[in-house]
Design goal:
This protein is α+β, with helices and mostly antiparallel strands and 364 residues long. 62% of the residues lie in helices and 15% in strands. It has twelve helices and eight strands. The radius of gyration is 36 Å and the shape is elongated.
């Protein structure tokens, strides 16, 4: 009976102490968050509680399990299992800590600067660096845990390291597209060509960059669809980035009107209407005739806005308002479609007259 109760008491007591320590740390972090509500650090550190409890628990079990008086065969297995769990818990803790540091750094930088583009660039870079660090830590942790749990894998690992050059060449050839996407992701992160939150036009679709990973980039289109593309696309093909150089943008509206359209009155009405719209930032506006054909003219109305969302809303509203105003006050300014009553062609008319004439002579 003692052989069963002693290990249970040791394990249960160690786990209980670890849980109490984790709850105490969590209460301290909550108290710190209430004392400093403007700082995100305490809330970020609360994410470390679970991996920290796991790490403390495995370390405590390694220190207390000799009290269970297990046999030598079980002792070796438990030692290796606890060592592997401690390594995995440490890697998990490092990943969570890196996330907390990155979020805290981004929050502080956003509070210090008013340039939204710089904040988006830092967010993109931190996101890719976090993914790289996470991938390296996961692969390394799994490899070390396997080597600890299975001693026979050590010889296999040594042989694999000896042939790492050949394996690297084969893997590089086989995963050429994946490696190109990885390098393209790093170039985008640190090259400032496109960032999370930028408004882009890709493959004729207008949307906002929502996520950038090591291999793919996701664009949220205006109708909430997601366009996922390989990162290498943005280093090899042209695309429009409306947020490059600042979020301000100028929109255009083209109208096809009759030659009698009152351009000065249209220009004045546009100015009055823009003064009533909150989307217009007051930087730029105008109405000009850009083209003239024998049947109509092309009028271009321009207006500026603070960002791409506002300029899209403003363009739609201006187009609707100008067409409605012209239809109410100057209907003749709208384009006309010339129509005529269709009749027989001259050749058919002569043939008809000749047939009718021959019939009249026959009747006489």
């Amino acid at each position: 009976m003692e052989e069963v109760l002693r290990p249970l008491i040791v394990v249960a007591g160690t786990i209980a102490i670890t849980v109490c320590a984790g709850m105490l740390i969590d209460r301290l972090l909550r108290f710190s968050a209430r004392r400093r509500p403007d700082s995100p650090t305490p809330l970020s550190l609360r994410r470390l509680r679970l991996p920290l409890q796991m790490l403390l628990g495995t370390l405590a079990l390694q220190a207390t399990y000799p009290l269970a008086h297990l046999d030598s065969r079980q002792d070796v297995v438990i030692r290796k299992a606890l060592a592997a769990m401690a390594i995995m818990a440490a890697a998990w803790l490092v990943i969570r800590a890196a996330d907390a540091v990155a979020e805290n750094l981004l929050h502080r930088y956003a509070a210090r600067t008013s340039e939204v583009s710089r904040v988006r660039q830092l967010r993109t870079q931190l996101g890719l660096v976090r993914r790289i660090v996470t991938s390296v830590l996961v692969v390394t942790t799994v490899a070390v845990a396997i080597l600890l749990l299975i001693p026979s894998m050590r010889a296999l690992g040594a042989s694999m390291l000896a042939s790492a050059g050949v394996i690297g060449i084969i893997a590089g050839v086989a995963a050429q597209s994946t490696l190109s996407n990885l390098m393209a992701g790093l170039q985008i992160a640190f090259g400032d060509s496109v960032k999370i939150g930028d408004t882009v036009v890709v493959e004729g679709e207008w949307g906002v960059v929502e996520e950038i990973t090591l291999a793919f980039l996701t664009v949220r289109i205006w109708d909430d669809r997601r366009l996922t593309m390989p990162v290498s696309y943005f280093n090899s093909k042209p695309y429009e980035n409306w947020s490059r150089g600042g979020p301000q943008i100028t929109g255009t509206v083209f109208l096809h009107l009759d030659h009698s359209a009152p351009i000065p009155l249209l220009r004045e009405h546009l100015r009055e209407y823009l003064n009533e719209r909150r989307e217009w930032d007051g930087r730029e506006w105008g109405v000009v005739v850009t083209e003239s054909t024998p049947t109509n003219i092309v009028v271009r109305a321009t207006m500026s806005a603070a960002d791409a969302d506002d300029v899209w809303t403003l363009r739609c509203a201006v187009r609707e308002e100008l067409l409605d105003w012209l239809g109410r006050t100057h209907p003749r300014a709208l384009p006309k479609i010339p129509t005529a009553i269709a009749g027989p062609d001259p050749e058919q008319r002569r043939m008809t007259m000749s047939v009718n004439g021959s019939r009249g002579e026959g009747e006489q």
